[in-house]
Amino acid sequence: MSYQLIDSYGRTINNLRVSVTDQCNFRCIYCMPAEGMVFVPREEILTFEEITRLVHIASGLGISKIRLTGGEPTVRKDFPLLVRMLAGVPGIRDMAMTTNGFLLKKMARDLREAGLKRVNVSLDTLNPETFKQLTRRDYLSQVLEGLEEAEHYFRLPIKVNAVAIRGYTDDELLDFALLARTKPYQIRFIEYMPLDADHRWSRDQVLTGREIIERINAVWPLEPVRRNGSREPADLFRFVDGTGEIGLIASVSEPFCGSCNRIRLTADGKLRTCLFSLWETDLKTPMRMGVTDDDLAEMIISAVARKEPGHLINDPSFVQPERTMSAIGG
Question: Of the residues 22, 140, 148, 281, which has the maximum number of CB atoms within 10 A of its CB?
Answer without folding.
Answer: 22
